Amino acid sequence: MTTARTPETVTVLRDVRPWGGEPVDLHVADGRIAAVTPHDPAAGTAPEAGVVDGRGLLALPGLVNAHAHVDKSWWGRPWVSYGGEATTQGRIAHERAHRDELGIPGVDVTLTVLREFVRHGTTAIRTHVDVDLGLGLRGIEVVREALAALNGAVHAEIVAFPQDGVLRRPGVLDLLDAAAAAGAEHVGGLDPASIDRDPVGQLDGLFAIAERRGVGIDVHLHDGGDLGAFQVELMIDRTLRAGLQGKVNVAHGFAVGDVPASRQADLVAAMGEAGITMTTVAPIGAAPLPVHALRAAGVAVGLGTDGIRDLWSPYGTGDLLALTTQLARLSRFRYDEELVTAARVATSDAARFVGRDVHDLVVGAPADVVLVDAENVPDAVVRAPRRALVVAGGRVVARDGDVLV
């Protein structure tokens, strides 16, 4: 395992351009932004402890990976060829058959993935961690140990995720309840209709845990068309009846992108009224989510990497800014304000996905900052330039691709 180092503590991040604006100095105290003042070029430039020169670079808030699976990767291991049947059920079976031989979940490989996130400017994540009858809660323990080794460089919320189904495996609901009781911030679900073949039963079980333990719900929903839309409608109804507005997320939600326009409009409006959020991994080949319509209806949208080189797919690098480029292209964003929206989805708008009230370059926010050499935000989104500096919680955690934790 990589030994955690002590990164440089920042007191002033000078001469940076938040969101491409005028140069300012960000003053940091106790890991948060304490003040934002206009940059004075005439001020002294002599080296001073805690004062970091931003060199006039564009500053973004730390990237937020709102849908990750850091417990399942083989990143850093010898190449693993893709195999098994290319369906949801086929991928589940293939993963169960081969994860042990790859040492998944394991602290070392999880830490390797997290460090790649840091390298690319991600400072906060919501990660789904498998909970099943074979693993128990071991995956959550592994992820927490890896996060601890990073010494606070990545803020994380955990979703206890039933990748092998909920009701069809007796005992999984009890494991999810135990995970919530032990501190997991959310319980997950998976295709209530097509995996468990009992959408009402699965959702009732998840909502019962959420109400009892005070946690959130985050459901993977791959089913498209009418079947997927029906399950979203069930979640809307259950959310309102349970009073869990703001605590329920639909991950993927392909149906929201592929149902007819009139039904989509009704579905999006109802989701907004119920305070349901959505996360996407901007998948190539799926109908893109109506990002503008969702945001206009008050439906927060988050962006995530999904799995990174795992038994489901050999793809992924952990670079969320590059994925922001993909989201923008799939959404057919071209205007500057649309490209800024894509950047907001990957940063400040995602605060709620990681349990934060604010995640931005403003007073009171966590001092999570990413510097890139870009003219403006649209330029940063379309090019995804190298991260020149990454600050997390007021500490320099990566510089020019070198991870310092």
Automatic annotation (TrEMBL):
Gene3D superfamilies: Metal-dependent hydrolases (3.20.20.140), Urease, subunit C, domain 1 (2.30.40.10). Pfam families: Amidohydro_3. One of its GO terms (molecular function) is hydrolase activity, acting on carbon-nitrogen (but not peptide) bonds, in cyclic amidines. It comes from the Bacteria. SUPFAM superfamilies: Composite domain of metallo-dependent hydrolases, Metallo-dependent hydrolases. Residues 113-398 form the Amidohydrolase domain. This is Cytosine deaminase.
